[in-house]
């Protein structure tokens, strides 16, 4: 096998000296199978090259931002043209108004837009606006949902003070009774209900939203004068050309966006309805680069592509082709997958694999064959993929299934024990 | 006068429809003198052009990021070259390790680096690391200091819940007794002391750090096993090629950086000492674009310029030339300025001006003469400025002083009443 990783190994060693534990956050390979490369040299279209020159068909898409292909010439040229004219200035450019108009034009529930950098910026602003709008503090959130990595929401509790998590009540996604109980517990202090557009928590099967649950969340907010917040940072424009909950006919008051909206350029957004416009205008939230014009120019071009092309139908068809191809391949080897969530935003885990040992083995084998899969995080279909790319992945998966079948019993990945300890739950 | 603003007026009206109150955050002109342009078309070198084509010599420098001139060709080319190769990928590039090595090489107190997007990301991570390191919650902060715009620190209280501000005790900058009292109040729960490198609060005179105060902050942290955090986001590399507190001989445990480190490209950083490396490794903080390679390539080029050129001595000399020129001009008109802080990071206010009426009048007159000053926020000397630029500003200021002298008594700017109401203190 031609796969090598000596340059990655050297870089990891250098990183250990100057970055805590060598890397942090969602792009650390600490909890990925052994040999997953930490450092990449190049990204173009649907492919990544690690620092050793190994090429991967990338189903992580930068954990979401890569919608139309890495280095899309039209979108990057728009970025560069605006950069040459003016990017981080002493005030915003005209492009900020154009982008707000474009977002509001595309997202039915939205009357206004604010732009920021991190998805967490947008969810945190949503939280603040709901509290400002209602004059109340309690927010109701789905247990295990990811809404960012600030003290109020980050999945690990290290460095979090009790005050950061005050005024939070949890429910189980898609469970109307549990939602109602949480709202009762919030009582007359309910400021907001947070919801992911689909259940896309890590390590567990994804779930599409039950329309009855989504409608009940809307009703409960209306009854109580609270705000409904849909966190579309990860799934936004992956499932619909509108808010992801347009698919279940429910309009949120606030929605958070990021990742795909500028095809990898740094920008996120909070969209809102008129009802909370004044509350949005009177919080103070800002950042050094929130008004930079170049990512806005890239976002405008990305939104035009979203509005005017069949990218969505194509990624859905590619996702179905992958799902069906993998299921057939697994069955041929007497194995089965748990493929959950929308086909265009797939979570793919090996069935009957409580320790993830099989999933780690299988994704590692795929990785070494040039297909970058993730063992416990949802993946993304890139609109620049072709049927031939999908077939390449299915073929690699087939070889990986064969190896998995031949491997016999596997030990639980030791690194996951570390994670459970960190999660502290 | 050739200054016009019809295009800005049209854009402001369009913005009102799709952005709450037309703009938000530190780049809103809501609290600037009337007619300050909200939207800009172009930025190059030391100049800004608004959407009506008016040109300004810009002393705000994008509120800090513009250190070497807007659109610096070498830095932007480094950004674009990395963008063409790979930017927001499924993992970081080699450039992340190089940048961490460069930062650690430049900043004496630092053994490791983490990169993020907003200055607020870095200060929030510092807070979390201090809490994680000590297992305690209370942080001691200077009253009125700006450390970002998250719920725990944003200057306005709208949308902030009581829990967000739990475990905070305040002291007065440069006041050792007040610092000691705050630390006593924190008792055995002290996690960290936060300090701005200089007092650069808005609306009040700036102050250089008293070395006795800085040393006492270090001692108190050492005695209590707490961490000393210097927030260098705004002043970093403006005063020194090392931590700004290297000038007073005090090493923090953690320092936050942003703005100037990539000459306008979106990146911020947290640097830390070995003592809290493990605490840094075990918090969870991340963002969609924190690992993007292009801003890191731009930062590397910027750091090389910082390390290898006399930019610092030049901006200091230009700052002194501005300070002296303005003082002489004011005196000629029987007026005086309060010019505080370092000359290269000047806050310039009109003396004897409790309502800011004179300052608003004077900066507005400067603005209409093509010099962009701020009436109550510190400004920045750009390393791309020349003596001729400074002389142009002084000449415009001289004309503005003449008009101010002739204007007679002025009414207090009504918009500041609104601000005091928002500040709620």
Task: Indicate the topology.
The structure is a homodimer of 425-residue chains.
Chain A: H1 6-18, E1 40-44, E2 47-50, E3 55-58, H2 73-85, H3 94-106, E4 112-116, H4 119-134, E5 138-142, E6 168-171, H5 176-186, E7 190-195, H6 211-224, E8 227-231, E9 254-257, E10 268-272, H7 277-282, H8 293-308, H9 311-332, E11 337-340, E12 347-350, H10 357-368, E13 371-372, H11 387-407, H12 414-423
Parallel strand pairs in A: 3-13, 5-6, 5-7, 7-8, 8-9
Antiparallel strand pairs in A: 1-2, 2-3, 4-10, 9-10, 11-12
Helix pairs in contact in A: 2-8, 3-8, 5-6, 9-11, 10-11
Describe the structure.
2 copies of one chain form a homodimer. Chain A folds into 2 domains: 6-63 and 310-423, Aspartate Aminotransferase, domain 1 (Alpha-Beta Complex), CATH 3.90.1150.10; 73-308, 3-Layer(aba) Sandwich (Aspartate Aminotransferase, domain 2), CATH 3.40.640. Chain A has 425 residues and is α/β, with parallel strands linked by helices. In chain A, a hairpin with a 2-residue loop joins strand 1 and strand 2 (47-50). Chain A contains 12 helices and 13 strands. The two termini of chain A are 40 Å apart. In chain A, the strands form 3 sheets. Chain A has a 7-stranded mixed beta sheet with strand order 4-10-9-8-7-5-6, sandwiched between helices. A 4-stranded mixed beta sheet of chain A has the order 1-2-3-13. The interface between A and B is large, with 117 and 118 residues.
Major sheet: arrangement of strands of chain A: 4-10-9-8-7-5-6
Strand count, sense and barrel status of the largest sheet of chain A are: 7 strands, mixed
Supply Rg of chain A.
Answer: 22 Å
Fraction of residues in β-strands of chain A: 5-15%
Unreliable segments of chain A (pLDDT under 50, ≥5 consecutive)?
none
Q: Report the total helices of chain A.
A: 12
Q: Name the overall outline of chain A.
A: globular
CATH topology of the largest domain in chain A: Aspartate Aminotransferase, domain 2
Helix content of chain A: 25-40%
Largest interface: A-B, 117 and 118 residues
Q: What structural category do the secondary elements of chain A indicate?
A: alpha/beta
Assigned CATH architecture of the largest domain in chain A: 3-Layer(aba) Sandwich
Report, as a whole number of angstroms, the end-to-end distance of chain A.
40 Å
Cofactor (chains A, B): pyridoxal 5'-phosphate
Family (chains A, B): Belongs to the class-III pyridoxal-phosphate-dependent aminotransferase family.
Organism (chains A, B): Phenylobacterium zucineum (strain HLK1)
Pfam families (chains A, B): Aminotran_3
